[in-house]
TrEMBL record:
Domain of life: Eukaryota
Binding residues for NAD(+): 45, 108, 132-134
Lactate/malate dehydrogenase N-terminal domain location: 9-155
Domain Lactate/malate dehydrogenase C-terminal: start-end pairs: 159-331
PANTHER family linked to this entry: MALATE DEHYDROGENASE
The UniProt record lists the keyword NAD: yes
GO function terms (MF aspect): L-malate dehydrogenase (NAD+) activity
Protein name (database record): Malate dehydrogenase
Pfam families for this protein: Ldh_1_C (PF02866), Ldh_1_N (PF00056)
Active site: 190 (proton acceptor)
EC number: 1.1.1.37
PROSITE patterns for the chain: MDH
GO biological process, one term: tricarboxylic acid cycle
Amino acid sequence: MSQQKEPIRVLITGAAGQIAYSLLYQIGKGDVFGQDQPLYLHLLDIPAMMGVLEGVVMEMMDCAMPLVCGVVPTADPVEGFRDVDAAFLVGAMPRKEGMERKDLLAANVKIFKVQGQALDKYAKKTVKVLVVGNPANTNALVCSKYAPTIPPENFSAMTRLDQNRAQAQIAARLGVGVDAVKNIFIWGNHSSTQYPDARHGVVKKGNDDIKMIDALPDQAWLQDQFVTTVQKRGAAVIAARKMSSAMSAAKAACDHMRDWWLGTPDGSYVSMGVLSDGSYNTPPGVIFSFPVGIKDKKWTILQGLSLDDFSKGKLEQTGQELIEEREEAFSVCAD
Ligand code: NAI
């Protein structure tokens, strides 16, 4: 019999919330860290939610998942963050219908300052941090700033839901399965300024890889309807469901962390909000979504893509928004 792996510790904040409700099952059954990776789940929420969290813990137990060695429900950040190998920072104040991102930002960056400090003090230095709570990019930046002993490349923000949405739109338009479409990228902020970019995409037909430009030559649709549908998809779900995306957000969080943990296949790239080094003339020092390839738990920004003037303009616009968010966040944190 092969030797069992050492268990890892995985933190989920906002554990009593709606995204976590879908996320926990997928993590617990091995979809993220592998079918052979035992884990302890640290579930952090605020004191007022401890009753609800108790119910979630009962259900986790009732799922009878062999990989789950133990569950630690807590409102104490020290207990929550101690020795964690991976952290899904989901807990935040969710966007309600009609709420401006600015209001959301002020309310949320303070949470992420405190959590950055807790990560710095109690988590493993190798911890991989995925920020889901909005405004995700700027929250991730604040978190990293207040965790100076953890490498900045260990912090990321989720734009995978946007990528999944974009991929699904392209697949539907072409009448193919989603797995036939790859290398659809999200640039910039997880906000309505994000730039969903299908131009470097590839579509599998039989044994052939067809370039997007040949598979879907409708430039007008790609520049207009496709971009706005993906940009506004979150708002459309809120308008219909009266709550923000949860099932699809949890699935995307799993996709993001799984690829970070286990790597991406050669020639496949995924979108992740990571610290910009100025690639593609983006503003250095903000968390910007780029196409990345991942090997040995390290991401690398895909270089050498040619961007036309339309794309350059979109990258500039979303980069500018991230600069403004950074200024606002740092001034809120300094108070
Ligand atoms: P929810 O309101 O159902 O759950 C949030 C949970 O976080 C609540 O249980 C709340 O008590 C908890 N929480 C608040 N402050 C906390 C703190 N300081 N520490 C620990 N827990 C705390 O919200 P939902 O739907 O689960 O969404 C969570 C976040 O994810 C929101 O900010 C939402 O905007 C964001 N989101 C991000 C997406 C992305 O693509 N990046 C997609 C969808 C949602």
